[in-house]
Amino acid sequence: MEQIYLDHAATTPISKEVLETMNEASLNAFGNPSSIHSFGRNARKLLDDARAVIANAIGAKEKEIIFTSGGTESDNLALIGTALKNKARGKHIITTTAEHHAILHAAQFLETEGFDVTYLPVSETGTVSPDDLKAALRDDTILVSIMFANNETGVIQPITELSNILEDHGAYFHVDAVQAFGTFEINVKELGIDLLSVSGHKISGPKGIGFLYAGENVAFAPLSYGGEQERKHRAGTENTPGIAGLAKAVELAAAHRAENRAKYRSCRDTFIKRLTEEEIEYSVNGNLDELIPSTVNISFPGTNVEQLLVNFDLSGIAAASGSACTAGSHEPSHVLVAMFGTEDERTKNSVRFSFGSLNTEEQAAEAAGRIAKIVRRLAKRR
What we know:
The chain is α/β, with parallel strands linked by helices. Helix content is 41%, strand content 13%.
C-alpha cells in the first residue's frame, strides 16, 4: 500500500538541492563566523550571501534579516522583544483568537508582565474584520500581530487592508508568514509590514532555522544574551549550514512559486472533487476561495477526529487535526473554536489536509477514495 503524505503544513521534506548546499557548507565553511581568520571569514561570507538572498526575496535590506531557530523563536522575538523595548510608549497589543500558539502563549506571558492584550475575533470563515482592528486601536497600542495564513485552516487574512489601517498609527505590524511564505510573493515594504516571521522547514528547508525580518525602524529587545551575533539581536554562534540551506530553500521557492501554487491547488481540487464524487457528507472549514492553495480543513459529520486520524494512518494516509505543535492534545482546535464556538461539532470532527512536493493528482484522488471508505464506515457506527 502506497503511503500518502498530506501533512505538508506540519513540515515538508527537505529538498535535495538544500541538503547538498548544507553538506557543502558543513564541509567547507565550518569556521566560526565571528572569527577574524580566513576560516571565520569564509563562514561570514556564507552568512552575508544568505542574508542578501533572503532580503532580496522580500524586498528588505540585508541588515533587517535576523536568523533564528524557526517560526516560534521569530514570533517570540517579534512579540515579546518589541513589547519589552517599547513599553514606555504604551502597553497595549492586538492579535487574534486564531493565531499560532507561538503568538498566543507569548501574548499570555506579556499579560503577566502588565501588558493589555486585545484578541480580535474571527468570522465563521476564519477572517479578521478590518473594522474590528480599527475599533480596537488605541493611542497606547504599540504592536499588532496577525498571521498571513492560518496554519490549521489555510485561511488568508486581509493583510493589505489591515496594514492600511495602521499606516498612520504608531503601532508596529507583525505578520507570521510561516504558512504563506514560498507560496505567495511577499514584499514587506509594499505591504507595510514591520516584522515578518518565517521558518525553513515549511519550504523544503532544514528544521531548526528561520528568520525574522525587522524593519530598521523597529526597536526591540533581545531575548538571549551572550555574544554580539546578529547585530546584538540574537546571541549565539550562527547555524551556518542551516542558514545556507534556508537561503537555498528561499531561492528555490521563489524560482518555482508559480508552478508550485498550480500543483498544490490542482492536488487539492482533485482531492475535493473525489470526495464529492464519493457522495460522503463533508464541509470545508473556511471559504475555499480564501485559502492558500496547499491546505484545506474538512469537517466530516458523524465522526470523531481521533478515530479518523488513526484509521487514516492505518490506511497509509498522513493528515492532522491541526497544528503539529499540539499533536496529542485532546482539546478541540482553538482555531475552529474561534470560528465556530465551543459547542459546534466541527471542532471535534475536522481534519487538515495539506499538499506539497510529495504529492500528485493521482495520489490526491487515491487518498480521497480511501478516506471516503473510512468516513462512510465510521459515520455508520454513530
